[in-house]
Amino acid sequence: MGSTTLHLATWGKATRTAKALLEMKCPKDAIDSIGRTALNIAAGVGAREIVKELIISNCNVLLGDSDGNTALHIAVLTTDYDIVDTILGCISNNTKESLLKASNKKGQIALHLAVLMGIERIVHKLIANGADPSALAFQDLSPLHYAALNDQRSLIEVLLDYTEDPNPKDRDYRQPLHYAALAKNSGLIRSFLAACTKFVLPVEFGQRDKYGHTPLYIAADNGDYASSEILLSLTPVSTFPVPDVNGDHLIHLAARSGDTQLVRNIIEQKHDIASVSGYGGQTPLQCAILNGQHEVFQYLLPLSLSCLDTRDDSSRTPLLAALEGNHSSMVRQILEHNPDINVADSQQDGALHHAAYHGNQDIFKLLLESGCRTFQGNALTLTPLHIAA
Question: Are 348 and 315 in contact (CB under 8 A)?
């Protein structure tokens, strides 16, 4: 259906014309080609008087456009407080309750959009009129999730003032604190925790999302040292040795990202975790080596002497991993502890093969002096000397 005369008058904010058309019983709930009623249009263009006249004439305020957005949704999206105030002030309590619960095609009520747009005044207005601060949108996201996702710190405090639960879970079992950690934003985490403390609301630090990650796991995986430091003392120690869906423990994530302090703290809490295998069968030491994290390597090496010959799923020992990455200083330090130097990985490449691939003559000589065999062939029957030639 195309635009009616009432639609056109509304677009032009022609209040007198719109009022006359309504008195002439012009169809007030007709929709245009993209599903908008005159009220939807009036809310979008800020035609306050026309909004009022349409509601007085008993138009259907619950009708949404092609995206399912009602006039209230649209007023919020245009951040027009006056239109929001007019709509809520002109309808009955029963209609208001229905309107505040009305969701668009993404499952968002007007409050979700107000938080998304970051308009604190409108958020207050909607909640004061009965909007549910714990309502769930698409993927079970609450307004509090939206606030954390978009770093709306003042709105986090507003929402927590109206709710008893700071730990709503979305479809992936993530809470707002998970989203703050995903944002790599230690300031946001501090603000969230401060607001929860202010309103005496208990925060769950040990909740795992569908990937098996607590907020601390996420911070560790992101290499967000500042957030890890905040969350470390608050997260239950019992969660540290519990693997995620990939088989990684917290220490593996910290080792890969180079968070030496977090690795140190985990080791101090649970001394036997240095040898545990994670994703790909890698020990924390192998994680540090394969990701070139020299400081973490330095810390873990003396604690990992019992697993220097441990192989990952690619049959790499720590020595082979260091050689594969051409980390000469790591190779030298590992050799000081007399590992098996004649091992080979899944491609039958041994220590000398890797040194030869990188053209690392110093390490090649050191391996020869340590007794490494030169005649060992790989899966392609190539010896280290073939590669070096």
Answer: no
